[in-house]
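Data availability (excerpt). All sequences and predicted token strings are deposited with the supplementary files. A representative entry, AraC family transcriptional regulator, is shown inline so that the format can be inspected without opening the archive.
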Amino acid sequence: MYEERPSRLTGAVVWQRTPQDLEGVRPVLPDGCMDLLYSEGRLLVAGPDTRAYVPGGPPRAWAGIRFFPGTAPALLGVRAHELRDARVELADLWPAARVRRLCDRVEAAPAPAAALEDVALDLSARSAAAPDPLLRHLVESLGAGRPVAATATELGIGARQLHRRCLTAFGYGPKTLARVLRLQRALTLARSGIPYAETAARAGYADQPHLARDVRELAGRTLGELLGG
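Structure token line:
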């Protein structure tokens, strides 16, 4: 069974998945986010995806906190593009002793997902840098379907600087971010029962075939398989 709830950390989501649910696990789709994960005594970081990720290995319980797009790199001290399409042991990014202490803390907690949330809140409280309002505005604007060029103009930032900042915060450039957010927008519409042709138009695709191609390329499945599989 998969469960999630809004986190006390702004924009983040706390989630957990039981082993039984993994028997028919669906792919993890690109969403512009990064996650801090825990399972069986291990802490990992899920980098930003540009394609569907299908968990492998035997069924196991997982807990995680999914950070708002663009916020995890500053909290974890890593550039997003270094973890693109990867799952990395936190011990490869942080001192081993620090990771062991965190693992013990999460392991001892009655609810690992809640313990991960507390870890994230601690990281946020200790962070020297405040959340970048430009990045949040970028996500909100592109998520609403605004063009990249128009958004960059609104932000008063040049194309090259925007691209560099996006690589660090999101793991890829603004055009890929816009494409990923458009996919999520389309999935939300389709899951609410909106017909595919109308979903394509409202999400910002040229037509339904364009939607179908993008879903296949980013998700590795058809829209029908994602909604009904």
